[in-house]
Each structure stands twice: as structure tokens, then as C-alpha cells.
Amino acid sequence: MYEDKSKQLTRFLIPEGGKESQKRELLRLTDETERICRLHYNSQGTENDLIVSVSKDRLTVVCHKTSVRSSYELKEAGNLDGVLTLLLDGISLPKTSCGDSPALLLSRQEFYEIRKKASSCSLSELSQRIEKATGDPGLSALFAKSFKSRHLTGELRICTKSGGSGGWSFHYASILADLSCGWLLRMSCGKEDWMSAAPVGKEQFCSAFLRWLLHLKPLVARN
Fold first, then answer.
1. Integer Cα distance of 172 and 152 in angstroms
2. CA-CA distance, 87 to 48, in Å (whole number)?
3. CA 211: distance to chain centroid?
4. Which residues, other chains included, contact 143 with Cβ-Cβ below 8 Å and sequence gap of 6+?
5. What DSSP designation does 32 have?
6. Which of 40, 100, 110, 184 is within CB 3.0–4.6 Å of 49 for a Cys-Cys bond?
């Protein structure tokens, strides 16, 4: 892998920086590495920060804080169940989605502005701000409620090897939930400016993550 592409990948996965030796230990990329995801979440007071890489039929999970490394064969169903439990069991999402409505759509910049002001405005004001950006009063009210009373927040930094050039494509997503509704937020990277927020339950999220893990599919929740 070319040095500039390696640095680009590292900056995306570990934007907070740190020692180069630690970053190399966390990633340990090889020519066979096909996709990587950093999964970092806080759920009801529990934090988990993992880097997941897939090379052909092998999956490696590294704890960001301790650099403890585990490796699994994807061919074995029992191992796969254990991997999903390790990665996703601590994510406290409602079992099923709170609705099958289309996703809220707005610009990434609009969302950043709404998020910046969310703590200083009331639930009603936040709902109105989101509705103004999306044009959807019902779903905006649900999203505002979840945002105000969230007990789960998390992010996924997803990298997929593109073609035979050794380059990578980058995707960013985040999750949040209150006790009644969970959300999968997908955001543009680079110069594009969009964000979508779709209701998601634990079953949907696990299914979407598994599809990405095994089949190089985008992380999109399906009803």
C-alpha cells in the first residue's frame, strides 16, 4: 500500500492522532486487508472502542485502548455469532425499529448546526429546527426526542478497498438512541454535504453490520 494512501486511511480511522507506533500496532494492515471499521460507542455508561479488519475469511478485532487483538475464522458460524456478540452486544438499541418511515434528509452542515445548539434549546425548539431542515414534522419530533434523551451514542468509520489500485473508499455513520427509538445516521465524507437519519432497531443494525462484514455491502438498515 502506498504511503500517502496509508496515511489517509490512518487519519480517517484515528483522527485524534497519537503515536505512530501505536497507530501501526492498532491497524497492522496487509495487502490482503479488504475492509476496516472502527466502532466506538457509549451505551448506558459503558464505552467500547474497537477496530475491526477483514482479510478474506479472517476477521481481526483490536481494542483501541489496550491493543489486545483477537482473530476469528469467518467460515465458522459459531465464531461469527461470538464475533457479533463481542462487537454489538453492548449497543443498547430497542429490539425493533420505532417505524418504517423514510429517512430524514438534510445537509451535513445543517445537522452540525442543529447539534451545536441542541443543548441550549427546548425539545420543542429542537424539533422545529429539525423540521425546518427536513420538512418532516412527525419524524423530526421523534428524532428530537431521541437526541435530547439519548442513552446511546456511537460512530462507525468504515473503509473499503476500492478496485485493484490499492485505494480506499470512506464512509461515516453514527448511531444514537433513547429508550423508545434508535437511529442510524449516515453522512457524506469529503466535499459532499448530506446526512440521513433512519429509525433502526437492534435486529436491523446487527443485520446491516453483518451484511457489510461478509459481503461488502453498504451499512444501510433494512425493514
1. 17
2. 9
3. 14
4. 104, 130, 183, 197
5. T
6. 40
Contact 1, 24 (CB under 8 A): no
Pull the grid cell for residue 94.
430497542
Q: Kindly state the cell numbers that stand for 132.
A: 425546518
DSSP-H helix ranges across 28-107? 77-88
Sign of dihedral through CA atoms 73, 79, 81, 86? negative
- Sign (positive/negative) of CA torsion 176, 85, 171, 67? positive
pTM above 0.90, yes or no: no
State how far the Cα of 204 lies from the Cα of 66, in Å rounded to an integer.
30
d(Cα 35, Cα 40) in Å, to the nearest integer? 17
- 45: alpha, beta or left, given left = phi > 0 and alpha = psi -120 to 50? left
Instruction: Write the single-letter amino acid at 57.
Output: D
Distance CA 151, CA 153 (A): 7
Cα 128 from Cα 140, distance rounded (Å) = 8
What nine digits make up the cell of 101?
Answer: 418511515
Q: Tell me the pLDDT tens digit for each residue of 40-96.
A: 999 988 899 999 998 877 888 998 888 888 888 777 655 677 778 888 989 999 998
- Helix, strand, coil shares of the chain as percentages rounded to 5? 35, 30, 35
